[in-house]
Amino acid sequence: xxxxxxxxxxxxxxxxxxxxxxxxxxxxxxxxxxxxxxxxxxxxxxxxxxxxxxxxxxxxxxxxxxxxxxxxxxxxxxxxxxxxxxxxxxxxxxxxxxxxxxxxxxxxxxxxxxxxxxxxxxxxxxxxxxxxxxxxxxxxxxxxxxxxxxxxxxxxxxxxxxxxxxxxxxxxxxxxxxxxxxxxxxxxxxxxxxxxxxxxxxxxxxxxxxxxxxxxxxxxxxxxxxxxxxxxxxxxxxxxxxxxxxxxxxxxxxxxxxxxxxxxxxxxxxxxxxxxxxxxxxxxxxxxxxxxxxxxxxxxxxxxxxxxxxxxxxxxxxxxxxxxxxxxxxxxxxxxxxxxxxxxxxxxxxxxxxxxxxxxxxxxxxxxxxxxxxxxxxxxxxxxxxxxxxxxxxxxxxxxxxxxxxxxxxxxxxxxxxxxxxxxxxxxxxxxxxxxxxxxxxx
Length: 443
Ligand SMILES: [Zn+2]
Prior knowledge:
Blueprint: E1 6-12, E2 19-25, E3 28-32, H1 49-55, H2 64-69, H3 73-78, E4 90-94, E5 97-101, E6 103-106, H4 118-124, E7 128-131, H5 133-138, H6 142-147, H7 150-155, E8 160-163, H8 167-173, E9 178-179, E10 184-187, E11 194-197, H9 199-209, E12 213-215, H10 227-247, E13 255-260, H11 266-276, E14 284-286, H12 295-306, E15 315-317, H13 323-331, E16 336-339, H14 341-347, E17 350-353, E18 356-359, H15 379-383, H16 386-394, H17 398-424, H18 428-439
Parallel strand pairs: 6-16, 7-8, 12-13, 13-14, 14-15, 15-16
Antiparallel strand pairs: 1-2, 2-3, 4-5, 9-10, 10-11, 17-18
Helix pairs in contact: 4-17, 9-10, 10-11, 13-17, 13-18, 14-17, 16-17, 17-18
């Protein structure tokens, strides 16, 4: 085993003896000679980590004397050392179960996690899933669902549930929408009738749908909106969140989260969060990310926000769930994720495996007797061959979609379990490096 830190001499200037080399460390390799900024009190004075990254090579210095005296090395250890990557392990308590976080929540848009029955959803999730307010409001209607005891009763799901506000779909799916201070008016996509969604109406529908965790109505403005438009939109989102909170009658049984918007503008995101924190929301969501911006832009924003999000409340990153984003989001202190990706990918024949994504209908799998993922212990991988799955997907058989859906969700459940174990052992960054390398992601 090599030393954790070692130096590799690559060149010596023949005229003066100056050395060029690489210093290898567990958290990065650095060209030398190099300058290291001093972060005496575990802060490079006035700068946040994303800025320190920009102005250094990535190796900084802390002073043992100062940190030993205050706040104390024992406390710093609890945060995973001075570096403390920001990842948190915790428990989310709900009326229908307690859940270890960080966690991934499968999406059950139409009161169904497509192709699976509730007992299967239980096997491949932690027990908390998501329903979409917009779709269920339009059909079959929240009043009907209420008669069945909410979504949980309607679909026979005895686990916990989260619903979104419906806003995202109104903004992304409906043409002919008009936003006013009161709410958003739009046309029914099928019959063209006029519909109106206000902050109060969104809460009323979500009261009827009966989820444990519900969302404030927000406007998810495009990431690259102008500063002027984004400011107007964020201010409205803040006012809508307050109106929803005032209206919400079931504060004891349904936890209402506020949603942080602000597109690419960091100061505006911080402003939105700080305004929302004036209302006692039991949790906060981050919306308007993974909407077309680069992954670097998204991670940079998460890192920035991680310094301002309250420590004692859950943080939910909405609509994000590719394996790399789950690991990176966890590093930046996100507790909850949801995404249609694993289920949608599955229906198109794409499977996650420990060695990366594969197209199940790929010709080379035609006579492959092995399991989909040899490291997975799900029932699909224990029972079926790649050859059989390849045949089902090529034949567009529903069972193929079902089996890959099951495996993909199980894969993410296992990934999050490994992420939590790594956090508990203060080694999430090392886990990220190992996982990315094996899965084929660039570090
Ligand atoms: Zn599997």
